[in-house]
Amino acid sequence: MIQKKYTFLILFYTCFASAQIGGKYVYQFLNLSTSPRQAALGGKLVTLTDYDVNQMHYNPASINPDMDNNFAVNYGSLFGEISYGTAAYAYSWDRHVQTIAVGINYINYGTFDGRDELGLETGNFTGSEAALSVGYGYNIPWTDVYIGANAKLISSTLESYNSFGGALDLGFLYKDEDNDIHYGLAIRNIGTQLTTYSETREKLPLSIDAGISQLAPNVPIRWHITLENLQQWNIAFNNPNRAQSTLEGEVIEEKVSFFNNALRHVILGAELFPEKGFNLRVGYNFRKSEELRIVEQRHFSGISLGFGIKFNNIRFNYSYSRLTSAANTSLFGLMIHFE
């Protein structure tokens, strides 16, 4: 039971864009990185625009004809207790400008031992959440501008409490074809609860992210820079474990500098051989690194690695993300192109 509680807290603490203000938002699973390619490149990219149908979950403007008839499934877990993943499929009825995508993402928190206030057993209970998305991408004719939107229906069951909600994602993408530079912007989780858990209405985890990426000239590397959580400037918090005590016994809390807080909005990623059948990926998430850093220990938190392999019409993707010495996570993904 203790391990399950610890796993539950680790998942929320490490994976969500608004982790430092956890408890203020509902449906936090919507901000999980569930694509191995995304996770390996740092966790949140809004400029990917190719065959990868998983990208619909991060920026609907990236939905494009190259995704046509691609089906993807992804799976990850923590300690074997919590499982989460996504599935997505895209179809183009106009090969030039119109593509639609359908996706689902889910999380299952496992089974817990229920007890009352006296510690007496009340039976087991479970928790799970899911969201069904329908996305549309559109290339404005005679331009390099792409726009898109996702409509999401959300379901959540936590013990005996249930909630339903609806949300909208909006995306923008601009391609500088001459320099092979992509600029992206995504506003995700604009919505509300349709029914609440216990007559208390909570906000959805709104996320505004912007990014830039480029295929480096004469080098088979595409680099990515993402600025996440632009809806809120101050995303840092004081870690009590990093407080210092003076000789007089006074406790001095950790002070997060302007520069440190700014860096927590930054995610870096690079993909080697992005257009080949074999890809290597690496990413670094400054916020996760700072929030999960253990005092006076080498931690490597925030680093992620991964690769992708293509066999004919099948692509396999894997990622490994370093969280803490007690909690690392791997994601597995499979993508199939139907002729």
Q: Element order, helices and strands?
A: HHEEEEEEEEEEEHEEHEEE
Q: Strand fraction band?
A: over 45%
Q: Could you give the distance between the termini?
A: 47 Å
How is the main sheet built?
14 strands, antiparallel, barrel
Radius of gyration: 21 Å
* Poorly predicted sequence stretches spanning 5 or more consecutive residues: 1-22
Q: Report the count of strand segments.
A: 16
- Going across the biggest sheet, name each strand in turn: 1-2-3-4-5-6-7-8-9-12-13-14-15-16
Structural class assignment? mainly beta
Polypeptide structure, described:
This protein has 339 residues and is mainly β. It has helices at 2-15, 36-40, 258-263, 286-291; strands spanning 70-78, 82-94, 98-115, 121-139, 145-158, 161-176, 181-195, 207-215, 221-227, 244-245, 251-252, 266-272, 278-285, 303-311, 314-324, 327-337. The model is unreliable at 1-22 (pLDDT under 50).
Keywords:
single chain, 339 residues, mainly beta, 14-stranded antiparallel beta barrel, two-stranded antiparallel ribbon, 4 helices
